[in-house]
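#structure-requests
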Amino acid sequence: MKIKNYMPRISDGLLSKKLRHSGAVLITGPKWCGKTATASVASNSIVYMQDPDRGAAYLTAADTKPSILLQGDVPHLIDEWQMAPVLWDV
């Protein structure tokens, strides 16, 4: 889901540059500072690990075949990936 009325940020350009040179980018910061909004604007596919309808299935996939969660158009956002730390090594 793309963010409506997104206000561009300085970090957008930095994220774009990093995505051109790396297979993955970790965005860190405090809660509610706009990390997901920034990443979703730059992404072409998204998995929200905290999705109330799919979260349990995503956690099961992470435990059984984590590569499933990496499917989708790149750049691919896995929001709240830390819920399934195995994804870090996938």
